[in-house]
Specification:
The chain has 226 residues and is an alpha+beta fold. 20% of the residues lie in helices and 38% in strands. It binds biotin.
């Protein structure tokens, strides 16, 4: 896969879309001026973090594989963190936490045609040595904070790239979940519901017990609080 390294870009995900010529790409940027988060939010992307988008094209990939694409991205991040002695937890669907705080966010943008995924852009932002801005300090952390020392960003990148072509399973993903059987909060725009987390289905839905009723929740509908 071709690797492109940029000093500055608006958003690596948007950059991939702009230059897409059908080739699979991995685009890194030192910082982003208009980093995008999920649910239309922005993603602060200061120097010292790892900001990457992996763009892949598919001929005949059914839409059910969308969760598998996310699994591969999240597990690659978790393996990278473990290589540096950090123990991550996945907060379904696609956040990676360390010591209860977010260390990495993932924004996946898939393009569909006739019910098939024809292109995926997996955008990943890992807080490595970057400062965490004061307004998110209570919910975000970095590899530097967790380890108490700066890391060699190039080494973190190389480690991440080494996991890019791995095909991880949903079992691999679930190994980073330590909150099954626990009470968690599901947040939608209007309400919060406390439920017991039970499992994650093959297509990436969260199975919960809500007052004795088994519900299957889609990540598009809710955010999860651990
Ligand atoms: C989130 O936590 O809301 C998702 C954040 C995703 C950030 C990454 S950084 C690289 C890629 N480019 C973007 O603009 N966003 C993703």
């Amino acid at each position: 896969m071709k690797i492109i390294e940029l000093d500055e870009v608006g958003s690596t995900n948007e950059y991939c879309k702009t230059i897409d010529s059908g080739e699979d790409l991995c685009v890194f940027a030192k910082h982003q001026t208009a980093g995008k988060g999920t649910k239309g939010r922005s993603f602060i992307s200061l120097n010292g973090g790892l900001y990457v988008s992996v763009m892949r094209h598919y001929d005949n990939l059914s839409a059910e594989n969308a969760f598998k694409i996310m699994v591969n991205g999240c597990v690659a991040v978790c393996k990278t963190l473990e290589n540096f002695g950090i123990s991550p937890v996945i907060r379904w669907a696609n956040d990676v936490l360390v010591e209860g705080k977010k260390i990495c966010g993932t924004l996946i943008e898939n393009t569909f045609s006739n019910g098939k995924i024809i292109r995926s852009i997996v955008g990943i932002g890992i807080n490595v040595n970057n400062e965490i801005s004061s307004e998110i300090k209570h919910i975000a952390t970095s590899m530097k904070k967790v380890l108490g020392k700066s890391l060699n960003l190039q080494e973190v990148k190389t480690t991440f790239v080494s996991y890019l072509n791995c095909d991880f399973s949903i079992e691999d993903y679930k190994r980073y979940i330590n909150w099954f059987g626990q009470s968690v909060t599901l947040k939608t725009e209007g309400e919060e519901r406390v439920v017991t987390a039970i499992n994650i289905t093959e297509n990436g839905r969260l199975l919960v017990d809500w007052c004795g009723n088994m519900l299957e929740i889609s990540s598009a509908e809710v955010s999860l609080r651990l």
